[in-house]
Amino acid sequence: MPILDRIPYINWWQGVLVALLVVGIMEIVAIVSHRWVMHGFLWSLHKSHHEPRTGAFEKNDWFAVMGAIPSIILLLIGTSQNIPMITAIGAGITAYGAIYFGFHDILVHRRVKHGWNPQQRYLKRIVQAHRLHHVVESKDGTVSFGFLYAPPIRALKAQLEANGKGRIRSSAKMRAEMDMVDNADHWAR
């Protein structure tokens, strides 16, 4: 393909840098798509993620499939055509997907059962921010759309109160969400 011939050749360490850059870019893509796509015109799929799960899967899991497709295509093209730049971009998207799965599905939502509760401040903040995101059951009015970055918890709580648009979970549901975070006293930070 003539257009592929124009892509510069990169060595392995440049490939690692490209992949790391793509991981950072993917967090921005995730924030934008979570805010304006998942909580926008594709709420019909994402809504399942804000409701109690009735089985191993939910409609929201289609977003993981949608995210994997470009990564698979880029990895196939990059490796089959020996274009390290494309391979590195595909690897960065794949790495973000793996990190997302680890943080979001395993650490926060415990879709893979484990007994570990993070004690490190950054990890706790990620978990707490996502819990605050789920305090709102409706499409509008929620906070914290990132997966690897979360603003300070106090700022998120203030933003949540200021929004006032969303349907807030009952206090029992909120407490259950908060109890999943070890050391509930840390919640107020």
UniProtKB/TrEMBL annotation:
Segments passing through the bilayer: 12-32, 62-79, 85-103
InterPro entries: BETA-OHASE-like, Fatty_acid_hydroxylase
Record domain Fatty acid hydroxylase: where: 20-146
Gene Ontology terms for molecular function: beta-carotene 3-hydroxylase activity; iron ion binding
GO biological process: carotene metabolic process; xanthophyll biosynthetic process
Superkingdom classification of source: Bacteria
Family in the record: Belongs to the sterol desaturase family.
Stated name of the protein: Beta-carotene hydroxylase
Organism: Sandarakinorhabdus fusca
